[in-house]
Amino acid sequence: MKTMTRLSGIGAAAVMMTGVGAALAPHASASVAQTPVAQVQMVPPGEYCTSYTSSRPELNPGATGAAVRKMQCLINNWRGYCALTIDGSYGPGTKEQVLAFQRKYTPTDVDASVGSRTWDALYRFNTPVKLSC
User: Fold this and answer.
1) pTM, whole model, 2 decimals?
2) Which of 41, 52, 58, 125 could disulfide-link 130, Cβ–Cβ 3.0 to 4.6 Å?
3) pLDDT tens digits for range 48-86
4) Signal peptide location in the record (predicted)?
5) How many domains is the chain built from?
């Protein structure tokens, strides 16, 4: 199993590396966290997640289906690790992650409803990685 090192706190485009320690950037003011993941590949932002569906409907807690899976995938890519199981169910864990994302990127829409502004932000602030969750 590989270890992914994520340097966060250095802007919206966080640096992702596999098998590399923080020694490469000793001058960066960033926290270093290592999270075991099965596989990390570089892909264009959001590309991996579009395999679930191309639609972007409004999603609320309790929703299920392909659009929820896509949103969960985008949340995981934003986090840089497998914060959510991609199961297509908008439950309490997904709601917690959506609220965290909204507090950071759509502070006027912190309501757990994934509408057009949240979808836009999920694509805009996504990291170019493919996680195998």
Assistant:
1) 0.64
2) 41
3) 676 677 788 999 999 999 999 999 989 998 888 889 988
4) 1-22
5) 1
Residue 1 lies in a domain: no
Distance CA 105, CA 93 (A): 19
* C-alpha–C-alpha distance, residues 82 and 45, integer Å: 16
Angle subtended by helix axes 92-105 and 66-79, to nearest 10:
60
Say if 84 falls within a structural domain. Answer: yes
- Token pair of 127 as six digits: 């990291």
For the chain, where are the alpha helices, taking DSSP H only? 66-79, 92-105, 116-124
Q: Which two tokens stand for residue 41?
A: 């590949």
Q: What is the CA radius of gyration of the chain?
A: 15
d(CA 110, CA 100): 9
Determine, yes or no, domain membership for 123: yes
Q: Which tokens go with 106?
A: 């759509």
